[in-house]
Amino acid sequence: VPATMPGLWSLLLLWGLAAPCWGLLETVGTLARIDKDELSKAIQNSLVGGPILQNVLGTVTATNQGLLGSGGLLGGGGLLSHGGVFSVVEGLSGLKIEELTLPQVSLKLLPGFGVQVSLHTKVGLHSSGPLGGLLQLAAEVNVSSRVALGVSARGTPILILKRCSTLLGHISVFSGLLPAPLFGVVEQTLFKVLPGLLCPVVDSVLGVVNELLGAVLGLVPLGALGSVEFSLATLPLISNQYIELDINPIVKSVAGDVIDFPKPRSPIKVPPKDDHTSQVLVPLYLFSTVFGLLQANGALNIDITSELVPSNVPLTTTDLAALVPEALGKLPPGKLLLLSLRVTQAPTVTLQNKKAMVSIAADIHVLSYPPKGTPEALFKLNGVMTLNAHLAPSATRLHLALSLERLRVTLASSFAHTFDASRLEEWLSSVVRVAYVPKLNVDLDVGIPLPKVLNVNFANAALEIIENAVVLTVAS
């Protein structure tokens, strides 16, 4: 492929061997490690599910000319257009390829270059001529190709065919007669023809796989909140067992504004990857920006009234008087309450010690709430909610479900008397659990998108929470 070819960077690979050990991820990106088994599976599936073999076979048969004969390699000016065996060769006129057996794929990663792809297949041929009537042959063929891994102009990883050759194996005659002198003729003919026939199969396969690799990039919607855009942060890295992609996630609001937060001060320690597994590492940075998007959109705010809580959860001045009577002043009992919760700064997400935690600081305004009339402010609290985040992967996303662990409040201001706000924590916790946490979980239902890497399904992935990241590992 010429260096000037559009869609490719002139610099393809400067990659070294990445041994399966603990490493450091210097960027804040999402790290994807694609096992070579997944790449081999993608190549095999492209042959099974797609029309590649049928297209190639159709191209061959559509020419309406045989490999041998007047229009083939043995015809006028061809390989054996003059000679003692030409009269016999004429009996093979019209020899055609009629079948390509589904190739068996073997793959080897080449650190510092790319991939070696080998296809083992059988080619079925037939001819109907005066020599022996119907002649049917089968030839075993190994197709060997070297494929470089580079980056396209779109910034996607791309496999580029650099060299392709075929090795002809055993030739079998199933019906008809093929004199011994012609075995060599057929063998030489196939040796010249098959590279031009089968190497396009490899190129077509790579085209399908490149579409899958290209799907790692692009916009992934986050419902009404915005989107995440994935792009390659660095050149791909290739080792003996896997291809590593450092993917940069950019979180955007519905208006297209980038939601950005300070980067972690220290790099992430990436755990080793076992053979025959693929990994995706979701950094703390992505969690933080998604929660930042929720806060920027006002999705973390809520007004809680009696309509949002079950009857067993008290939300009247009578219940409040039992806890902090001095907070009511001259307000009579039996009045409904309104809790106005406002989050003015982005939540803090913590990933460590195999736990995921979310801390949300909120201003909690407590008001009396007459069915008709204007709410009357009673007092304001500064609250900090600590929530456990339960993580579960699906095929393409990492889902979060929050549960309240504790709520701490202090009195910020009061329109009556000051009081010890800690006496309200148990009551407020019950209200938050039934009215606020369910709202958060609905907003978080969109989950955190995972990059699409060769259609790897992470639904049954093993999940590990490490320092400042979550690692998903799935067997190939």
TrEMBL record:
Gene3D superfamilies (alphabetical): Bactericidal permeability-increasing protein, domain 1 (3.15.10.10), Bactericidal permeability-increasing protein, domain 2 (3.15.20.10)
Listed SUPFAM superfamilies: Bactericidal permeability-increasing protein, BPI
Record-annotated membrane-spanning stretches: none
Keywords recorded for this protein, A-Z: Disulfide bond, Glycoprotein, Secreted, Signal
Domain Lipid-binding serum glycoprotein N-terminal intervals: 33-275
Record localization: Secreted
Signal peptide residue numbers: 1-23
Entries under InterPro entries matching the protein: Bactericidal_perm-incr_a/b_dom (IPR017943), BPI_fold-BPI/LBP (IPR051660), Lipid-bd_serum_glycop_C (IPR001124), Lipid-bd_serum_glycop_N (IPR017942)
One GO molecular-function entry: lipid binding
One GO CC term, this protein: extracellular region
Domain Lipid-binding serum glycoprotein C-terminal: from-to ranges: 274-474
Domain of life: Eukaryota
CDD domains: BPI1
Entry function: May have the capacity to recognize and bind specific classes of odorants. May act as a carrier molecule, transporting odorants across the mucus layer to access receptor sites. May serve as a primary defense mechanism by recognizing and removing potentially harmful odorants or pathogenic microorganisms from the mucosa or clearing excess odorant from mucus to enable new odorant stimuli to be received.
Protein family per UniProt: Belongs to the BPI/LBP/Plunc superfamily. BPI/LBP family.
Alphabetized PANTHER family for the sequence: BPI FOLD-CONTAINING FAMILY B MEMBER 3, BPI FOLD-CONTAINING FAMILY B MEMBER 4-RELATED
UniProt name for this protein: BPI fold-containing family B member 3
Record lineage: Eukaryota, Metazoa, Chordata, Craniata, Vertebrata
